[in-house]
Amino acid sequence: MKNIFNQTDTAEILSRIDKLSPNSRAQWGKMDVAQMLAHCSSFHDIAMGNSFPPRGWLGIFIGTFVKPMFYNDKPPARNMSTIPTIMIVEEKEFETEKVKLKQKIITFQRNGPEKCTSHPHPFFGKLTPEQWGKGLYKHLDHHLNQFGV
Fold it and tell me: What is the pTM of this model?
């Protein structure tokens, strides 16, 4: 499984982000490309310990049991629900969001596993840095595939 802590995997993700344009269209879902970039950036804020969404009741009851789906090799389902606090519905500016996300990815990768949050994921609960690294890669890969890159 690819991991955002791996420099090669990070370089691949950054290269794919660079292939996006303001005209990139989603193959599924409701977000436009700028909203997707903002969504991914907000998700990085959680992993970096800059945002602490509360755990919902569903995550408390089943999150631990389904946690491997966050970091395993199986692609996530299209149109899955998301953490409410990172659901982006307002209009965003493409270039601003692209730069923000790329910088957060680079910072997260350079900081390494030791700077990863120890705060529980709002749905899956406690994750190791290794699980966060794989999960972040998987999340970014999912959304980049959504936009055909």
Answer: 0.94
